[in-house]
Design goal:
The protein is an alpha+beta fold. The chain is built from 4 helices and 4 strands.
Length: 146
């Protein structure tokens, strides 16, 4: 093997490595941009009296899975520590790829026969949710959750 062939081989290996690093770098940038377009939806469910526990049971027993099935990422759920909301307010957050994706996911969720069955079973002895408040949020540039 000649020195010329070795140099040519080293050049090819270097070019391949540089190309791989650049590809990985640009893919990371694209993923970061895509993640930066996500929107978060904060939802607050005000329940009828004594209906917070059945709501939590429904979330635990399949509603969260139904969100995921229909393209929504469940980020977490909370109950206020203090009265008066401790007994009748459930707060949760969903992540969506975009506002349009959120609409599409909600439409699919509402039409899903599995969701309708789950909702019907959980409300067999009465409605659970009296009022829903919802808002879409954009993460700030300093937010760890994007």
């Amino acid at each position: 093997m000649t020195i010329k062939n070795l140099r040519y081989g080293a050049l090819l290996v270097g070019a391949f490595a540089a190309g791989s690093l650049l590809t990985a770098h640009f893919m990371n940038i694209q993923q970061a941009r895509a993640a930066g377009n996500r929107v978060f939806e904060l939802r607050m469910y005000h329940t009828f009296p004594n209906r917070l526990t059945p709501l939590q049971t429904r979330f635990r027993g399949g509603e969260v899975r139904m969100f995921e099935k229909n393209g929504m990422k469940f980020a977490g759920g909370w109950v206020p520590q203090d009265a008066p909301n401790h007994d009748n307010l459930f707060v949760y957050m969903l992540a969506h790829e975009s506002r349009a994706a959120a609409q599409k996911s909600w439409d699919a969720f509402r039409a899903d026969p599995e969701w309708k069955k789950l909702q019907g079973a959980s409300e067999a002895d009465g409605k659970i949710v009296e009022k829903v408040d919802s808002m879409f949020l954009d993460p700030t540039d300093f937010s760890p959750l994007k």
